[in-house]
Amino acid sequence: MKYELVAGFETHVELSTKTKIFCGCTTAFGGDPNTHCCPICIGLPGTLPKLNRQVVKYAIMAGLATNCEIAEVAKMDRKNYCYPDLSKAYQISEYDKPLCEHGFIQLSNGRKIRILRIHIEEDAGKLIHAHGDTYVDYNRGGVPLIEIVTEPDFRSADEAREYVEKLQQIMRYIGVSDCRMQEGSMRCDVNISVRPEGSEKLGTRTEIKNMNSINNIVKAMEYEFERQVDVIENGGKVIQETLRYDDATNTTSSMRGKEDANDYRYFRDPDLVTILTSREEVEEIRSMLPELPEKKQERYIDEYGIPEKDAQLLTKYRKVSEYFDEAIKDIKNPKTVSNFIIGSIFRRVETEKDKEEFAVATSPKQLNQLVKMIEDKKIQNNLAKKTLEQMLDTGKDCTAFIDESDLGGIDDSALTSMCQSAIDSNPNAVADFKSGKEKALMALLGNVMKQSRGKADAQSVKAKLIELIG
Amino acid sequence: MSIIKKIHDMLSSKEISCKELTEQYLSEIDKSNGELNAYVNITPEVALEQAQKVDEKLAKGEEIGMLEGVPMTLKDNMSTKGIETTCCSKILTGYKPIYNATVWDNLESKGAVLLGKTNMDEFAMGSSCETSYFGGATNPFNTKHCAGGSSGGGASAVSGNIAAYALGSDTGGSIRQPASFCGIVGLKPTYGAVSRYGLIAYASSLDQIGPITKTVEDASIVFDAISDYDPKDSTSQGRQKGLTYDTINNDIKGMKIGIAREYLEGIRDDVKEALLNATKVYESLGAEIVYFDMPAIKYALPVYYIIACAEASSNLGRYDGIRYGFKAEHYNGTHDMMCRTRSEGFGEEVKRRILLGTYVLSAGYYDAYYKKAQNLRGTILKAFNDAFLNCDFILAPTVPMTAFEMGHAVSDPVETYLTDICTVPVNIAGLPAVSIPCGFNAKGMPIGMQLIGNKFEEAKILNAANMYEKVAKENFKDTKWGVKL
């Protein structure tokens, strides 16, 4: 029998607000243990939370960017559970009135992954096991999170990969999170079940936690799919449980069963007032959202004639696309700019982080100046490419590397004399060209380029040669 | 006469120095606290340091504020930086907050002289002060009786003249009930009028800090001083209106006083009689008494205990021995440490309410208890709103009886819960109410009555209470204890 995978995602995204969700402490990653803390975020008796409105704004941005409806009235609830890293013994979250609902993210195969809800909540601290003891670091306690919950709409691990990549890309674009899975600023839990292909009924699901990269998510889902199919094929039943993924062995193991599930005793947090969001505020936030990657990609393809693959590369990181947008100002053929970015600049930014930050020595304005010189036929492409490398090495303008003799290219009389000299010294090639072998012209062109030390414009040389051979 | 004003005049006219006055209070505390058990932590250094500052100011010929140099006390559930704050629970023994409650920040900046922290039922859970880890405070009128609770220590201290005024907190009657038992004045302000920041929570949606004083004028002075909007407390709104002190002597002629018949059911005859006598006093002042029915009140007690316990079960989860306070000595691993710390650190009443609260919030029971209680909370609030369409304030007994004898309340917790019947509706609806003395029973124990106002109508109830005090002085009796000014 053929089986179908059914999965849903719960993704925690750490918001990059400057301060925590209920106090003024910094959200900076790292820092010595318990140095980013105050009476409020370590839950000292008598302290009260005060909602950071920026968190609401960021969550609304995330909601709008994923096509959600934004609630006019939302509230915060207490999720009660006891664990040493949770200083109040409850997490302030949103239970039955989340800020954002009913959104979706569209995949490249046309399928829509429905987003059930996005809510805001606070992060917990961290346990550190060392010297045979357990220590608690509350620096992360109170860092704002959004939890993005999808419907069980995934049918393959590949869809999951695309979803996570898209989600990352969108969140980074709108600037609400850096979504670094390694640092834990993006964490995914996957609910997964299997069913016979064609069946409508959902199977018993398991939940996988502890996957710290997209590759691990894919591997864990593939493993868990096979495991569940095996269980069913062997006449067994999948047990509802929470599993931990171990990337060293690429297996999942049980963390806790259904019967150990917490009763969180949710109730409205009486310390916080209702969150009201006016429609005007939502529209204002919507109008301030940057152009999202998908829209951008379409625009690059349709308006600038950039190939789809290149458009994807340019829009994957917001900073890259912003760089491109600035570098193409008043440029007739943006593709030249795109080629320089993808061909030359990308070779210098290797890691994900570097691409994300895209801090290159040459500013978009400097690149723009260089490409304009090509378009004005002042220099030709090869020289420009060489110049760009020098620019990237030094951060200097292109004019620093193009001397007077380069400027303006080769004048017509010089070009004529060089072409004539090439014709005169290659009678065979001329004869071949005359007999119809068009490729023979390339030998002549090479000769001229050599004479001009690469400064001549290839198109002009070809035209001149044909004219002279006549 | 207002104690605060009297002290202010004495200090301003240099009749007594602040140091002398403070020392007098400290010495009286020394003499009487053994029997009254009002204070659980006396802070002479803090008090004398502040007194010296006031004296220096006076020596320079500078004017002082109304509360400057006035010796006072805080209930032990208000955070005081560097001063042990225990909620009278074993689990918080040794806990010294690293920050001040907003009310204390406020009063400290106004020059208040803190004599110490006063006794209370553990985590404010109780009606006799006897669930305190340090034992209960006694009643200055008769120390065989309790001071009431939960702010029993504050009421005992003020009634016993070993503090000019006290700050208490009122979740289901914890200011008004002990004030009534000790024959003094207790104001529970509108929810949101006084910042809760730094008040160690019992039930967050019901808790409110307020003054316990000898006279209505004093309550007004203190309330005006502590009722500022506080950005640290999202539920804070501040006083909303002008100073209550400005209108405290207004004529109350033509005021309509409502009496809900339900409040008169099941109360002792002597209490009822005292209340009815008070209505006569009010009529003589030109007010009109209107009787009405308020059936929703019968839900108040269960609603209160469900909501308060639910919130408490969550608020008290943080006491796990990891960060502060008491930690069990012997344990095996983190989980066992938390269990033992809580088992050994909490008293019986606190455990009972945590269990009750956990139960009513549990999956499968939530709808039947907590959700229903929340709905009924709305019903009760509406009943009050309707009542205020036809009257300026509601007059009701504060407690159906006078102060219990020591030991009585703890022996029967459920019966003791029932005695909160008159005070809890106000907390559920978030309203202000002031309890003032209105007579004595045959054994000379004080009887109290409360004036319940609409939201942010503190000025109106304090005005009416003050006008009553002026003509019914005999009900505001002093005790033999403490400082005689």
What is the overall pLDDT average of chain A? Answer: 90
Count of β-strands of chain B: 13
How many domains of chain B? 1
Helix count of chain B?
A: 16
Residue ranges of chain A: pLDDT <50 for 5 or more in a row? none
Structural class of chain B: alpha/beta
Q: How many β strands of chain A by DSSP?
A: 16
Please state the structural category of chain A. Answer: alpha+beta
Task: Summarize the model shown.
Chain A is an alpha+beta fold. Chain A is 39% helix and 20% strand.
Summarize the SSE layout with pairings:
The complex is a heterodimer of chains A (470) and B (485).
Chain A: E1 3-14, H1 53-65, E2 69-70, E3 73-74, E4 77-80, E5 90-93, E6 100-106, E7 112-122, E8 126-130, E9 133-137, E10 144-150, H2 157-173, E11 186-196, E12 206-211, H3 214-233, E13 241-246, E14 251-257, E15 267-268, E16 275-276, H4 279-288, H5 293-304, H6 308-316, H7 318-327, H8 334-345, H9 352-357, H10 364-375, H11 381-394, H12 412-425, H13 427-434, H14 440-451, H15 458-469
Parallel strand pairs in A: 12-13
Antiparallel strand pairs in A: 1-10, 1-11, 2-6, 3-16, 4-5, 4-15, 6-7, 7-10, 8-9, 11-12, 13-14
Helix pairs in contact in A: 2-3, 5-6, 6-8, 7-10, 10-11, 12-14, 12-15, 13-14, 14-15
Chain B: H1 3-12, H2 18-36, E1 39-42, H3 44-59, E2 71-75, H4 102-109, E3 113-118, E4 138-139, E5 142-146, H5 152-159, E6 165-169, H6 176-181, E7 185-188, E8 209-213, H7 216-226, E9 256-260, H8 269-284, E10 288-292, H9 300-315, H10 333-345, H11 348-361, H12 367-387, E11 393-397, H13 408-411, H14 413-418, H15 424-429, E12 433-440, E13 446-452, H16 458-471
Parallel strand pairs in B: 2-3, 2-6, 9-10, 9-11
Antiparallel strand pairs in B: 1-3, 4-5, 6-8, 7-8, 7-12, 11-13, 12-13
Helix pairs in contact in B: 2-3, 7-16, 9-11, 9-12
